[in-house]
Automatic annotation (TrEMBL):
Residues 19-53 form the F-box domain. This is F-box domain-containing protein. Pfam families: F-box. InterPro entries: F-box-like_dom_sf, F-box_dom, FBL13/AtMIF1-like, LRR_dom_sf.
Amino acid sequence: MDADDSNNAAHAAGSDARLSRLDDAALGHILSFLPAVEAARAATLSRRWRHVFAAMHTLSFRESDRPFSMGYRWFELCSYCDPGDPDRVRPPRLVSGVGAALLGRHRGGPHAAAALRALRVAFDEYGFKGGDEARNTVDGWLSYAAAYRAGGNLEIDLRLDGGEPICKRAYSLLLPPGLDGGGEQEQERCRRRGLHRRIYRIYITPKSLFSCAALRSLRLAGCGLDLPSTIALPSLETLHLTRITDGSRTTGGGAAAVQRLVSACPRLADLTLEACGGGSNLTVLSVPGTARLRRLALRCCHDLAAVNVGDSSELRAFEYRGGVPKPTFLTMHGSARKISFCTIDLCDQGPAGTPELISNLLHFIRLFAGVERVHLTSARLGCGIGRGAFSFPALRKLELTGMLPEDDDTASITAVTRILERTPSLETLSLFFLPDPYPMVDTTGSYMTVDDEEAIHAAHELRYDRHVALTVPDVDIPCLRERMREINFVHYQGAMAQRMLAKFLLRNAPVVDEVWCEFARGPLSIQTKLMGEIKGWVLNKSAKMMFC
């Protein structure tokens, strides 16, 4: 070992010694930011760390990978498994780990465990046929969290849906009329989802959970609500519900349960509902005026037809994912001037020129005319909003996500021009290009598309044709000429429509001082040519340009 290695080893040993000199509370706070499995391994470092796990105030468990065989009793998915196989009745590894972690917090004595601030469990092992044993185990976790809570600050995050996407609708562009092939496959998929819900036995939450005065944040996914006659959640500020169904079989089903829960939270400030549609029958949601919401997110609640916010004076962020809503969808009482961030994600087949759809969308986005940041996602980049009358006078950051087909070269420039003309204060523009639709057609009359990140990368193909004439107009748009400081391109593949749009923006933005471009996967030689082309379009040669 040379002198440098010796010095490095001594320095590392000294750092470890200084860290070990911290008290248990400080070390427990540090380890609380790690998954519980990783934090538990710290006990093997030395005797000093043996009982530090008990000082952690946050326990986080997440199933890394789904089991290859679901042959155990709680998840009898493999009907061909040997009934005599001991693995069939062995508790799932993650379930055993949660139980061991909770018990392990008390190794140092009855008063050694720190008060619990948060318990987070996300896994897919509850089972298609989870019975009383499975439910009692999860009930025990929640009871433990309530018993060892930290004063009036407790967070419970229980996700038993396996991390499935909340919506499987793919972004797609409508085909011209006459090529529609019918919706038989979609009907069959709906039938199968209904059969799956009848087979799958969901976890029913205990009534005691909704009488915990210390509960400040609650997130449930893939669960059924069984609410008590009186809900007492005076401290709850954050509520996140995903795929919630009715667990009590009362009149009104899950819709009544979700509405009752929302109405019973007087301090509710952050509300998120995801895929609370078919299983909960949620069609109308009313947020009482006593709840001063600061953030509201509605994602893929496709049966939800009307939302009434009793007091929107404190609302600062709004997120929506779903189809184009009707004008009566959202009603906000009070001033909504504090809303600074808005996300609209049209996950169905967005406006393809239908006047009614575009009119409905424009009515919806006008509700957020005073925002400073907007993120708009749709099948087609810009989703046709440039054709209507709207204005965002305070908008500073705009992100557009969508496809840009080859035949949209001039149309995309026209649409972006109209958008920029209505955003006089815009300083940052980001364009995220989704992959072009495949040339094949499915039976629903849409181009086949992909929507996961890996497929997006794989579907891109870099291209470059130096013989194509890229003629773009010179325009005088105030925000582009005087205020635009940053332009970003994500998943740029060099298609003609993308190149024309990029050239149009860069050639008309003389004050831009930062350009960032992420290329699609492809040969380095093509990336180099596209990079040189973009550099030539930037008027401000001292601008900071980054490529990856």
